[in-house]
Amino acid sequence: MLPERVLVFCASSRSCHPAYHDAAARLGRSLAARAVGIVYGGGAHGSMGALADAALAEGGHVHGVIPHFMRELEWAHDELARLDLVDDMRERKRRMLDAADAVVALPGGCGTLEELMEAITFKRLGLYTGPIVMVDTRGFFSACTALLERCIEERFMAPAHRDMWQTVDDPEDVLDAIAQAPAWPRTARAFAQS
């Protein structure tokens, strides 16, 4: 079954390798083609802009959530179906996660990584139970998944926690990964300290 809305964590950098913007655009087109709505950080530049522009060009529904200060800096995308203005970054993350059935992380900087780690943490605690998929463009997330594996090896996390995330090489494989993600119970907090 397809998710109704997917939260996409991605970057606003215009300086990164063009392959990252291409992957964001491909994801936007892929989700829009299957009538899956997108929730994201509301930006107009970098991977954020590429994702939104491609989805909108395909007739997709794109919902942005952005803090007031970013709107004042003119970072917001002005052509979205919906743009929510919030007070700060914490509210932004909460609103986005509450609005989505699944999480997808595209490569990005410290903000993107922080959002991804919070989603994984919430899943570990049973506060969020949907799929989490990392799109491994140019092998970007290999170091991240290696670090998570090290957490398991060193017993800061249990082997069962490996089921909290999936990785795909291509944006077009995201929806299949979401559909095949193992169910994650709200009772996960019972073994969160494992």
Give the helix/strand layout.
Layout: E1 5-9, H1 18-33, E2 37-40, H2 46-57, E3 62-67, H3 68-72, E4 82-86, H4 89-98, E5 102-105, H5 110-124, E6 132-135, H6 142-153, E7 166-168, H7 174-180
Parallel strand pairs: 1-2, 1-5, 2-3, 3-4, 5-6, 6-7
Main beta-sheet strand count, sense and barrel state: 7 strands, parallel
* Quaternary structure of the protein: single chain
Q: Per DSSP, what share of the residues sits in E-state strands of 2 or more residues?
A: 15-25%
Name the average pLDDT: 95
Compute the gyration radius: what is it?
16 Å
Q: What form results from the Cα inertia axes?
A: globular
By DSSP, the count of extended strands is: 7
Q: Please write the CATH class name.
A: Alpha Beta
Structural class: alpha/beta
Integer count of domains = 1
Helix content: 25-40%
Pick out its properties.
194 residues; Rossmann fold; 7 helices
What does this molecule look like?
By secondary structure, this protein is α/β, with parallel strands linked by helices. The protein has a single domain, classed as Rossmann fold (3-Layer(aba) Sandwich), CATH 3.40.50. The protein is 40% helix and 16% strand. It has helices at 18-33, 46-57, 68-72, 89-98, 110-124, 142-153, 174-180, and strands at 5-9, 37-40, 62-67, 82-86, 102-105, 132-135, 166-168. Helix 1 links the parallel strand 1 and strand 2 (37-40). Helix 1 packs parallel to helix 2. It is globular. The mean pLDDT is 95.
